Amino acid sequence: MSVEETGRTTVTRADHRTDVVPLTARDGTRLTLVHVRGPREPWRGPVLLVHGSGVRAELFRPPLPRTLVDVLLEDGWDVWMLNWRASIDLAPSPWTLDDAAVFDHPAAVEHVLAATGAPTLKAVVHCQGSTSFTMAAVAGLLPAVDTVVSNAVSLHPVIPFWSRQKIRYLAPPIARFTPHLDPSWGYRSDGAFSKVVRRAVALTHPECDNLVCRMVSFTYGSGFPALWSHRNLDAATHDWVSGEFAEVPLTFFAQMGRSVAAGHLVAAREHPELPADLVAGPPRTDARFAFLAGADNRCFLPESQVRTHAFFAAHRPGAGDTLHVLPGYGHLDVFFGRRAWRDTYPIILEELHR
């Protein structure tokens, strides 16, 4: 009798068997893959989890009773989490989305397939992990990926009015003083400029007592807070975010500013592997995409995913690409909201099964 027939063992963080695997990107950059296994061997294929900017793979393992990783392991998936060049667990660098698309994601997919012997894999990708992964997919660089669950933003970044003002008028002068922004300035100083930013955020973001939470809102969006709703986070998770955000380079904000102005992602550097215009033609991928958008997202508006879904649907009607606008959710609480196990994880599982 199969595992599916006998029922699944409940998995918690205590059951995780974790291996951190060194990975070299195609340009020589040192990355890591975090391979997580549960109490039973997986009976489904591999799934790759890809975090956003200025965080790390542990984003998917918050201090919740049931995390997305737990649910995936219970459901039989072979879970791999990528620390790509935007990870705070790696040496800081002036990365761009196209660097990750060309060098990081193809190397990660290749490694996981070689390690597991699987012919294909599925991916759950978030924010700038999603934009860079989608960039790689539509350029034809990820032919062995058959399903992508994308959260928040992919090809068409649409941001709130105040975010547009910050990225257009505030980011360039900030770049004269620092090569990066860092929400961890909320509890540690990195020179005089970091103290100025911390003070400014303390004065303009009074929404909670966690200064890192407030720094995150200043850095990434427009809202109080911007990346989640406080009502969706339990106390342990709200405390935990203090250690999960750090340096993000101004090169990213410059690229995102140009992309927002263009209405779609644009490359920051010359990469012959990427088309000159990512949205000029049909996506060069057979992967089915499921686009998730928190209805209350104040980092990237839901319209971001609506536009990309429309782009895919126009170029390949009938391919099965889907769109889910999630009421009551924002940007990151899709993954670490206190009730995400009930509200959003089932949608992700359903899309991985389709």
UniProtKB/TrEMBL annotation:
AB hydrolase-1 domain sequence ranges: 46-157
Keywords: FAD, Flavoprotein, Oxidoreductase
Entry superkingdom: Bacteria
GO molecular function: oxidoreductase activity
Names of required cofactors: FAD
Similarity-based family: Belongs to the GMC oxidoreductase family.
Protein name: Esterase/lipase
Species whose genome carries this gene: Cellulomonas fimi (strain ATCC 484 / DSM 20113 / JCM 1341 / CCUG 24087 / LMG 16345 / NBRC 15513 / NCIMB 8980 / NCTC 7547 / NRS-133)
